[in-house]
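Sequence in, structure out.
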Amino acid sequence: MGEIWKIAAIVVPMGIDTFGVALALGLAGLGVDSRWRIALLFAVFEAVMPLVGFAVSAPVAGAVGGAADDLAALVLIALGVYALARDEDSEAERLLAFTGRGAPGALLLGLSVSIDELAVGVSAGLLGLPVLVIALAAGVQAFVVTRVGLQLGARLGDVWHEAAERLAGAAFIALGVLLLALNALA
């Protein structure tokens, strides 16, 4: 699997997940100013968290050597299982509650939607992928899909939010399994 395809395979599920969260937030009927702030907030957090994850994984990658690719695949599978297992209704309510809490709420909202990107940064580090490219792509995609999700959220409803979350989880699991299979063949 070429490096560009690995990057795309990691970044696209993050966008699907972010889109699902933005749909849920769009249901709240946020104003135009709030939509721009949330899109910028998500973009910043989703660009920074892979860098943090990479910083954490760099020493681990050196320590585990050849098993780094398999470990990265397992991290992605675990992330996908987590995305499929979490309670969507309580998560949506929690995220909506953060929007009305000023700066502390914004910080918590940004952190809560970017935890997945932390795990992606770990996987990128273990796979030896260019984390700056991933961080930039994650930030850009976060801004775009958040804006689109917020706009569509009020029109589409809860069903689409849950479907987007499930699709992201399944994509992470599929990517992890694919990486394990490719590593076994190598």
